[in-house]
Amino acid sequence: MPLRVGLIQTRTPASQAAALTHVLPLVREAAAGGARLVATPEGTNLLQRKKAVLAPLLQSLEADPVVAGLRQAAADLGVWILIGSAMVRRSDGKAANRSALISPAGMITATYDKLHMFDVDLPNGERARESETYEPGDRAVAAQAGEVKLGLSICYDIRFAALYRALALAGAQVLTIPAAFTRPTGEAHWEVLLRARAIETGAYVIAPAQGGMHEDGRGTWGRSTVVAPWGEVIARLDHDEPGVLLADLDLAEVDKARAAIPALKNAQPFSPP
C-alpha cells in the first residue's frame, strides 16, 4: 500500500499564536486528503530575522504552543506529523532550529537540530548569518515513522551531500528537507538540489517549504516538492502561496532504484588530493 504524504506550504507569521492558526487548517486538510505522514516547513512556529525580536519569543520545544498544538492535532487526526522545524530555546539557553517527529499518539519520537548554518553573502546583496542566532546540531538523525524510515534535515543542509549519504546508509527511505529557501537561491538551485539528493541516495525526497513575502521582510521561494528515487518530480506546488501537496510514495521504488544503481554499496575509500 503506498504511503500518502501531505506537504504543508506556509507563510508563517511572526508570532506563535498566529502561526498555529495558520498551519492547523492546512494540516487538517492534508489528513482529510488521506495523508498518513504530514510534513511542515522550516520555521513552522516562527520566522523572525531580528535576533532581538526573536529571543524573547523562544520557548523550549515542549512548551512551544505551535508544537503543543501540532502534537494534539497528530493525536486527534491519528497521523504522523513532522514539524519541519521549530525555532526553540535549548536547555542551555541557546537557540536551536529543530525538527520534531510526532507520533499518532501525540508523542515526540525524534528530534534533529539543523547542522549547517546558513552563513552567506548572496550576489544580490542579501546577507544571512544563522550562526549568530542559532547553535548548530552535532548529529544526523534517522527515525522510524510507522512503516517508513525518515532521514531528517533542514534547508541549507541540502547542499551537503555527505549528510544524505549517511542517512541513506542508516536505512532512510525518505529524506525530509523542510525549508525556507531564499527567492534567488530557490529559483536557481531548489529543484536541482532536491533531485540530486534523491538520485544519489535512491531515496524519496519530500520538501515542504515556506513561500512568499513574510512579516519580517524576508522572501521565500515556496515550490514544495516531492521527488522519487529515480530523480523524477512526482508532485510540486508551482507557486509560493500557502497550500497542501499530496503524493503517494511506493517504498518498493527505493529498493528498485538502489538495486539498479548500487552507488551506496559501490563507493570506494580514497585519499584526499
How would you describe the overall organization of this protein?
The protein has 273 residues and is α/β, with parallel strands linked by helices. It is built from seven helices and 16 strands. It has a single domain, classed as Carbon-nitrogen hydrolase (Nitrilase/N-carbamoyl-D-aminoacid amidohydrolase, 4-Layer Sandwich), CATH 3.60.110.10. Strands 5-4-3-2-1-16 form a six-stranded mixed beta sheet. Strands 8-9-10-11-14-15 form a six-stranded mixed beta sheet, with helices on one face. The radius of gyration is 17 Å and the shape is globular.
Domains (count): 1
What percentage of residues falls in helices of 4 or more residues?
25-40%
Could you name the ranges where pLDDT drops below 50 across 5 or more consecutive residues? Answer: none
Distance between the termini: 47 Å
Structural class of the secondary structure composition? Answer: alpha/beta
CATH architecture: 4-Layer Sandwich
Q: What is the name of the CATH topology?
A: Nitrilase/N-carbamoyl-D-aminoacid amidohydrolase
Q: What is the rounded Rg?
A: 17 Å
Mean pLDDT: 97
Q: Please tally the helical runs, counting DSSP H or I stretches of 4 or more residues.
A: 7
Q: In CATH's first tier, which class applies?
A: Alpha Beta
Query: Biggest sheet, open or closed, and with what strands and sense?
Result: 6 strands, mixed
Strand content: 25-35%
Identify the overall geometry.
Answer: globular
